[in-house]
Amino acid sequence: QKEVEQNSGPLSVPEGAIASLNCTYSDRGSQSFFWYRQYSGKSPELIMFIYSNGDKEDGRFTAQLNKASQYVSLLIRDSQPSDSATYLCAVNTGRRALTFGSGTRLQVQP
Amino acid sequence: NAGVTQTPKFQVLKTGQSMTLQCAQDMNHNSMYWYRQDPGMGLRLIYYSASEGTTDKGEVPNGYNVSRLNKREFSLRLESAAPSQTSVYFCASEAGGGTDTQYFGPGTRLTVL
């Protein structure tokens, strides 16, 4: 079992819809959770991080964390074509560095 | 304020050649990282440096060496390149020890023939 799992997609949503991206992790001791966005040919950039159970909102983005279920998600409201990218989930397990999932490719259709 | 810079942006090597990928950050961060990214594999940690003067192996260290030259610079060396090392290499830096946000450089696209 991979330490951080994401559906590779592509996840296709129409413009204006809510995109829901999911991530599960295996280490119950994981402490903090990050969502990065990566456009094709570019480097990852941080969108959000979350440390505590529940929801954290930042503009059109909401991160949701459920440590009991070992599940973290990212909701993108009012999706725009410019949101089309690969979204990487990253987890800090308390060891040396972040562990990244393989990413979910999101396509927002105009 | 350039953030994290990497050189070169692109490189083509022949099998057996050596090269060094350079990374520098101007954010006064303690920790620096080297990742490789292959299609469908996500980011895999090669080596990291928690602070100046220390380096440690990550998930896929074989075939690589690193040097933390000073607080700003962290280089990755391929002593004898192999086609399996064809990948995109990202350097990242972080203020704290694995708990804070990582900032990535623009990447180096390496092809080994």
What keyword list fits this structure?
heterodimer; A: mainly beta; six-stranded mixed β-sheet; five-stranded antiparallel β-sheet; globular; B: 113 residues; mainly beta; four-stranded antiparallel β-sheet
Percent of residues in beta strands of chain B? over 45%
- Which stretches of chain B are poorly predicted, pLDDT < 50 over at least 5 residues? none
Our count of helices of chain A gives: 0
**Largest sheet of chain B, if any?**
7 strands, mixed
Helix content of chain B: under 10%
Multimer state: heterodimer
What class do helices, strands and sheet pairing of chain B give? mainly beta
Q: Name the largest protein-protein interface in this structure.
A: A-B, 23 and 23 residues
Instruction: Calculate the mean pLDDT score of chain A and round it.
Output: 93
- First CA to last CA of chain A: what distance? 36 Å
What is the makeup of the main sheet of chain A?
6 strands, mixed
Which sequence of SSEs, written as H and E, runs from N to C of chain B? EEEEEEEEEEE
Described by the principal axes of the CA atoms, the overall outline of chain B is: globular
User: Taking Cα atoms only, what radius of gyration of chain A do you get, to the nearest Å?
Assistant: 13 Å
